[in-house]
C-alpha cells in the first residue's frame, strides 16, 4: 500500500528519533508495549500505526507525539538530546563541587535487576 507524504514523514521520524537515541527496534517495541515485528513493519513502510499505537511509540521514544508529525523532528530530537547531555554534565559538575557522593556507585543504592 502506497504511503502518503505525511505517513512517510511520520515513519521516517520514528526511525530517525529511535536511531538518534541509540535504541534498537526491539527496545522501542518493549518500551512501547508493542511487538518488534510491528515496529519493523512500520519502519519498512509495510504498516502504519493507529493513533493509540503511534502515541505508545512516541512515549517509548520519550517524545511528544507532535515530534513524530513535525517536519523538523530530527533537528528537534538532536537538540533535545544535546540539551539533556549539557544539563547532565552541569548537574554532575555541581554535585561534584558540592562533594555530594555518587550514590549509583554505592552497592546499597544500586537497583537490582530481577
Nutshell version of this structure?
With 114 residues, the chain is mainly alpha-helical. 64% of the residues lie in helices and 0% in strands. The model has no long low-confidence stretch (mean pLDDT 86).
SSE layout:
Layout: H1 5-20, H2 25-32, H3 36-43, H4 51-61, H5 65-69, H6 73-97
Helix pairs in contact: 1-6, 2-3, 2-4
Largest sheet, in brief, is:
none
| Helicity range | 55-70%
Strand content: under 5%
Low-confidence stretches: none
Shape: elongated
What is the CA-CA span between the terminal residues? 43 Å
- Number of DSSP E strands: 0
- The helix-strand sequence is HHHHHH
Overall residue-averaged pLDDT value: 86
Number of helices: 6
Query: How much is the radius of gyration in Å?
Result: 18 Å
Structural class call reads: mainly alpha
